[in-house]
Amino acid sequence: MIRVTVPASTANLGAGFDTLGLALTMYFEAGLATAQSPSNARVCDHHHPTSVAFAQAGGSGGLWSLDRIPMGRGLGFSGAARVAGALLAIAQRDGVVAANSLEARLDAFRVATELEGHPDNAAASALGGLTVAVGGRAIRVPIAMQADVVVWVPGTTTSTKESRTKLAPTVSLDDAVFNISRSSLFVAAMATGDFGALAEAAQDRLHQNVRLAIVPETKRAMRAAVEAGAYASWLSGSGPTMACMVDPLRVSEVLSALPSGGVGHHLRIDVNGPVVSERAS
Q1: pLDDT for 166 beyond 80
Q2: Is residue 47 classed exposed, middle or buried when 0-12, 13-18 and 19+ CB atoms within 10 A define those classes?
C-alpha cells in the first residue's frame, strides 16, 4: 500500500507574507485506496484537496486520508493535503523511490502552489524545514538554531480567501521597506542562530494587524507567549492560530501562559519533509 506523510506548516512568520514557511511536526497522511487502507481513515471524495491534486498530477483511482492537521486554522492543511496528492500520483506512476526525490517534491510543490494560489505553505510541506518561496521556485534555508515551536489553536476557523479581501490593495513605501527588512532578518537569524533578532524579525505591517482585529484573543496569545519567554510570536498563516519560537527549556512556561480559549501544542521543526512509503497498514 502506497502512502505519504506530509508535515503541517506555519506560514508568513510575521513579515514574510506569502513567502516564508516553516514545516512542523504535525502530519497529514494519505494513501492509495486498497483493501488494506487503515480502518480509521476517511475516503477522499473528488472535492478533497488531496484528490484534486492527485488528479491534477495524473493520478487515477481512490484515496484515503488521516486528517490530523486541523482545517481552517492556519496550519497549512490544504497545502499539505495537495502536496500529498501530487506525491501519490508521482509514486503511482514512477514508484516510491522516485516520489521521495527532490525533483518529485518540487513537482508536488508546483502542483500544490497552482491550486493554492500562494506558495508559502506548500513549499514548507514539500521540502521541510524553513523555506522561501516565490512563484514556482522554492528554496530550503539551513537552520542554525535549536528551538521548538508552540502553537495555540483556538476553536474558531478562518477563511484565507475571505481574510485576504480585508487587506489593503496598496502599501506605503515605508511599510514595504519595513516588511522586506524584517523578512530578510528572519531568514538571516534562522540561518545564523541569532535568537535575539527573531522578535524584531517577526514584526509586520502588511497583514497581521488587519487579521488580528478579527481574532483579538490570538493577539493576546501572541503577547502572552513573548512575555513568558518565547523568542518571537506571529499569526500562523491567516490565523486564527498563533505560533511562536521557544527555547526547549521554556516550553512549559509558554504553554502555561497561553489563554484558556485555545489548545496549546508543543511541536518541533520538521526537517525531513514528506515521506512516501509502501507498507502494510
Answers
A1: no
A2: exposed
Domains (ranges, CATH) in the chain?
A: 2-140+269-278 (3.30.230.10), 148-267 (3.30.70.890)
Residue 172 burial by Cβ neighbours in a 10 Å radius (0-12, 13-18, 19+) = exposed
Q: How many residues would you count in the chain?
A: 281
* Contact in structure between 273 and 105 (CB atoms under 8 Å): yes
Listed in sequence order, the residues at least 6 apart from 128 whose beta carbon sits closer than 8 Å to its beta carbon are 7, 23, 140, 270, 271, 272, 273, 274
* Alpha-carbon distances of 99 from 4, 85, 107, 111, 272, rounded to whole Å: 10, 11, 10, 14, 14
Q: Which three cell numbers stand for residue 151?
A: 502553537
Which of 89, 128, 100 has the alpha carbon at shortest distance from 9? 128
Task: Report pLDDT digits (tens) over 249-280.
Answer: 999 999 999 999 999 999 999 999 999 999 75
Cβ contact 28:124 at 8 Å: no
